[in-house]
Amino acid sequence: MTVDFTVTRNTNPTSPERRAEILADPGFGKHFTDHMVRIDWHGDHVDSGEWSNAQVLPYGPLSLDPAASVFHYGQEIFEGIKAYRQADGSITTFRPEENAARLNKSAQRLVLPELPEDLFTEAIRQLVSIDADWVPSGDGESLYLRPFMISTEAFLGIRPAHEVSFFVIASPAGNYFGTPKPVDIWLSTNYARAGVGGTGEAKCGGNYAASLAAQLEGEANGCKQVIFKDPNRDDAIEELGGMNVFFVFADGKIVTPELTGTILRGITRKSIIKLAQERGHTVEERRFTLEEWRQGVASGEITEIFACGTAAVITPVGKLKAADFEISSPSGEDGGAVTMALREELVGMQTGKVEDRFGWNVKLV
Ligand SMILES: *Cc1c(COP(=O)(O)O)cnc(C)c1O
Known about the structure:
The protein has helices at 16-24, 70-73, 96-110, 117-130, 205-220, 267-278, 290-299, 337-350; strands at residues 6-7, 35-42, 50-58, 76-78, 81-85, 91-94, 142-151, 163-173, 183-188, 225-229, 237-240, 244-249, 254-257, 283-286, 302-309, 313-321, 326-327, 361-363. By secondary structure, the protein is an alpha+beta fold. Strands 1, 2, 3, 4, 5, 6, 7, 8 and 18 form a nine-stranded mixed β-sheet that branches. Strands 9, 10, 11, 12, 13, 14, 15, 16 and 17 form a nine-stranded mixed β-sheet that branches. Helix 3 crosses helix 4 (117-130). The protein is globular and about 60 Å long. Bound molecules: pyridoxal-5'-phosphate.
């Protein structure tokens, strides 16, 4: 499908000096570029409505009716994807068709309309083109893109909204893990982020809202991240609040919890499985319990643990802390050789330093 985007340039963009200042220390999700994308949808039913009014417009506040259903019933989904500056100056993104497909799976679950996959990628291309100067070129740096979809219809009756908008905003991201240190994680036993038949597999804001109490509990116990287990399957480990988790064994085997419907289908997870297999690791996607974690670290069979997601790429995991026990960190302060090698290969592929053997990079500009 071809959709023409109306482009309205920001008449008061960030000055080059200010932008340079921001890019020197972007942090994460704090600063936003000069433009955004918006596409509206209208329809009586998710299968029969129409996307229209595709625009690139100045970044700025939205005007929504206070009765807009997103504020009341939470019909909201999002994605996270990055744009990378290549050595030749061009800008690429990574596996956008995967994000587009996942957005549509999330849309199905939340009864929001599906966005044609090529329109998703085109929306990203439009924003990255106009804000290309915001794509940093430093090691491990990128422009983080946040596509999201909300229900905007002013109606308090309970049914899927008839008016919806899709947006893309962008925020420069620094190199978090230049020297990644293992993070200690908190095992949440009081809270679950997802349940069987719920929205665990959908990338929706509601899941994050549900994870915040556990996150605070973890912080109060000195942990930056929280891991959840499946409350219905005893001690099966699921994932962190916003990252999937992997366990590396001394014999080279790598285990990650299987996708049960309550775990988010991470694209980093999927990419790492492929890269690890290529490197000769046996990768098992299966039920992985707390008991196996405890025993594996105690016996020395588990040598490394890491978490992964688009924002942070790969983060080594240290200790597991819970209310009444602790499992010590299997790796040293450097996070472990397998973890670091996978991270280097993945980031290298995304930024053009390692050959893109699977055609995962898509040129945007
Ligand atoms: C986005 C997300 C991930 C990671 O997915 P990627 O596609 O690798 O970025 C993992 N878990 C949750 C809950 C998420 O929302």
